[in-house]
Please model this.
Amino acid sequence: MTFTHGFADNNGLRMYYEVHGEAVPGQPPLLLIPGGGSTIGTNFSEIIPLLAASRQVIAVEEEGHGHTQPTSRPLTAENSAGDILAVLDQLKVGSIDVLGFSAGGHTALALALARPAVVRCLIAASTFASRDAVPDEFWDRMASATLDDEPATYQDEDRRLNPEPGHLERQFELDSRRILDFPGWSDKELGTIAARTLVVAGDRDIVTAAYAERLAGLIPGARLLIVPAGHGDYLGERDASRGDLRTMHATVPLLLRFLGGVAGRRRARAASTGAAGSPRPRGQDPAAQG
Model:
């Protein structure tokens, strides 16, 4: 599998990116956006080989995370979406599918809203789009959180990549303010998303299954996937999965099937017909479900 990496400049912010696998004719790359505190490695290192086996994957690190150094500006979904557009411009990529996890899902939503011609498919994973999506207790915990509350997995990775004093503290500050100052989007705004959308959440996630269903109902034509998981273990996220990748391996085929779009549905219909041309009962073929 081919691998390249680099930086793209957006008014002084140099966003780090990685490209895994070869471009597939007629199929846009899949862009991966990690969650808060995370890097490409902690969030996606386990799932990238599975995804890149059949399509090109581009992964980025947002400001202050991993190899992307912080600046004096705030970390917002809109700022990060602009950084990603600089990456796509440098790579000469005109269309993408995008998967954003947790806070990275905010960036994915912002990208889909700002550039509907660029985002073909959107996977909003374990994320929320409005402040009322989570209870008041969530905001109280965020307001009182300190660096000690950040998972050791993220702290250790940041110190490994950025041992200079103050970097980890700045990363935590950027993430905290990003969430606390998050304005969200109105139902009307979410109703303008043109990308084919899949909303994904675990049944024991930060967001509830009921909220994920509500979000999917606000985005035209969106599909919903609830998996038996927590906050990110179904993507192989390092802190959540703790090395148990069974749910990730079960989830990846569903994500790829969704991204297959019309072609995937055609394959499913073909698979639901036996060699003699007679349809199989739907219960005998998972590809025919939905």
User: Anything to note?
Assistant: Residues 3-259 form a domain with the Rossmann fold fold (CATH 3.40.50.1820). Residues 66 and 179 are 19 Å apart (CA to CA). The two ends are 33 Å apart (CA to CA).
